[in-house]
Design goal:
The chain contains eight helices and four strands; from the N terminus they run αααββααββααα. The mean pLDDT is 87. It has a four-stranded mixed beta sheet with strand order 2-1-4-3. Strand 1 and strand 2 form a beta hairpin. It is an alpha+beta fold. It has one domain: Potassium Channel Kv1.1, Chain A, CATH 3.30.710.10. The N and C termini lie far apart (83 Å). InterPro entries: BTB-POZ/Galectin-3-binding (IPR051481), BTB/POZ_dom (IPR000210), SKP1/BTB/POZ_sf (IPR011333). Pfam families: BTB. This is BTB domain-containing protein.
Length: 156
Amino acid sequence: MSRADDERPPKRRRVLSDAEDEPTRELQRDPLDIRGSLLELHQNMPSFSDVCVVVEGSKSSQEFACIGAVLASASRPLAAMLYGESSRMVTPSAGSSRPRLVLRGTEPWCFDLLLRYVHGLQVALDVDMALTLYHAADYYEVLPLRDGCCAFLLDA
């Protein structure tokens, strides 16, 4: 044993007491703080994204830089497409650094609104938009958005 070992204080053992004797407190993150973090993710999507979602609509197509985990947490079908056994991810091509997910049958403007909603942003609706967005939200099972579109259409 070296001299340095002799000079170290002995390790203290933690004494565990009954949980009933100790005060407990549960902390929860403020919803506005969570929303702020999602907004920051949305604003910095090119830096934080790990997947490129290619949305091919009937008239146009568009690429969206996305965070797969955020999409998966909001949509069971997108979770399956991104991470499930029958994943539809395409490995990145030589010029791209992110894997790609191709979605057909959804209009890019509609996916953009769905993406904004998932990131906690407000989505402005009119009747035509709400009907198309309702179908997309239903297909991707973003149920609060679907229900919001339904309520808007019933009130219109």
